Amino acid sequence: MFDDQTLTTLKTIASTFIEYSALLFLVVLGLGAIYLVFIYISDITQTQHAIRRNYPIIGRFRYIFEHLGEFFRQYFFAMDREELPFNRSQRSWVYRAAKNIDNTIAFGSTRSLNQANEVLFMNCLFPTLSQDAAPTNAVTIGEGFAKHPYTSSAIFNISGMSFGAISKPAIRALSAGAKEAGIWLNTGEGGLSPYHLESGCDIVFQIGTAKYGVRDAEGNLSDEKLKVIGAHPEVRMIEIKLSQGAKPGKGGILPGGKVTAEVAKIRGIEVGKDSISPNGHPDIHNIDELLDMVVRIRDITGKPVGFKVVIGFSEWLDELGEIIHKRGLKYAPDFITIDSADGGTGAAPQSLMDYVGLPIRRSLPLVVDKLNEYNLRKRIKVIASGKMINPAEAAWALCVGADFIVSARGFMFALGCIQALQCNKNTCPTGITTHDPELQRGLVPENKATRVKNYALNLMHEVGVIAHSCGVKEARALTREHVYLIDNRGSPEPLTDRFPEKTPKPQYLIASTADDSDINQSSDTHSAIPITASKDARPR
Ligand SMILES: Cc1cc2nc3c(=O)[nH]c(=O)nc-3n(C[C@H](O)[C@H](O)[C@H](O)COP(=O)(O)O)c2cc1C
Hints:
The chain is an alpha/beta fold. Among the domains are: 4-70; 154-308 and 328-366 and 377-468, Aldolase class I (TIM Barrel). The chain is 38% helix and 11% strand. The strands form 4 sheets. The chain has an 8-stranded parallel beta sheet. The protein has a 3-stranded antiparallel beta sheet with strand order 1-14-15. Helix 10 (316-327) links the parallel strand 10 (305-310) and strand 11. It is globular. Mean pLDDT is 92; it is low at 513-540. Bound molecules: flavin mononucleotide. Flavin mononucleotide (FMN) binds next to helix 14.
């Protein structure tokens, strides 16, 4: 095939190639050895890391494995129900719901049904037939008190995540998905961006302690700016953020790396500098000032106004009830959002995240009971949040007395979040909590909007499935009687034994009639509030 000369040339080329490769190999080996000697010397002479000083070179693997472990544990080692904050089983439900693929599982439950404090719903002998099921009842917030009350039948909505903490494509996807699903999107404390508005979805505008988006040069609430925000027809309610479950008593933290020119402009702050909100509202020191602020914002915007808190000490709820009865129902917040101590955040100190505040399992019944005792349950709507990313948790909240459930991290999973726990850096691998354009490329808003919509609709549908199994026609007809709680011996006990429904104290059966002249809206504004009506009758 080849003549002798060609063969000789090929042999020469091959042997030259082998010689150079061998030489290159020796050079690389030599450089590698020099590098190893260099890091060996640097490890044993440095004084900061004991492990590297005692185990030069191999000690470094510890840091590499520790970092890689964050990513690989969930794939190789963690069981379906053991990871935190969300286990694989919870996340998979969201992923499947968001993709609108079959969400059934096989063979049997992997959930342990004898763990203390776990919840079980009580099915009835004759479940509600599909043809008897009813659409979810609508609830109106601020009726009779806000010029523009807000009515929604969507029980599951998007909780506050600020522009800055999350990216532009993430907000665009949430906004478009919210519009398609007919749910609301809370802006979080970072101000209102064009991306929130672009789909025309319902928006809850949040005012954080730094008043981002509505602050004047001194950082005080600007009535003019608030008026402009309130004039957007999409802005349906205003939420004053007093505290957040992951960091009660600490303001928002946005690392400088995430304060882009656009984020800075919308917030009204400097580019590239850490954005740290005060740990409380400098202009709200007590219940009276809080209620004054509620009324001020409602008067300026005409929209329902409420506040978001994580419950710790709860005596203030009595003070709130008493003051509202003294000053008049106009002074009541139109809603209270209760966040759980185990809520999420973009960034927070671990001590606050792990140790401060009450979880929603305790705080939701506590607040609902107090509102009932003060006969304010109809006046003040209750929104609950905190790790309620699957239908059962949302159904539990409705049973206990919430009017609405909101979630942040559930919708992050719908956007493709893999729980990489990088929200406080600018390195989120799924483009949700980063402003790095390279990483944002992965998040295509059009595609993810559909997932947001699917997730919300599938979750609400499956809460309905639980309700029908319990024999009621729709999700809002669920009551505490539909829930059993597993006790310390592993035996299910009625939730009503632990948290019996409260009725109004006699002195509050007729609500306050103070301040009639202030009320500008409905005919029944300050008339007596009837005793909290029981929910739909339940078939047994
Ligand atoms: C990335 C991120 C940003 C958040 N930003 C805000 C915020 O600006 N304002 C706020 O009140 N809560 C914020 N939260 C808290 C959520 O709104 C919510 O209260 C909490 O995460 C509990 O809901 P979840 O368990 O469904 O996530 C944030 C949460 C996350 C994960």
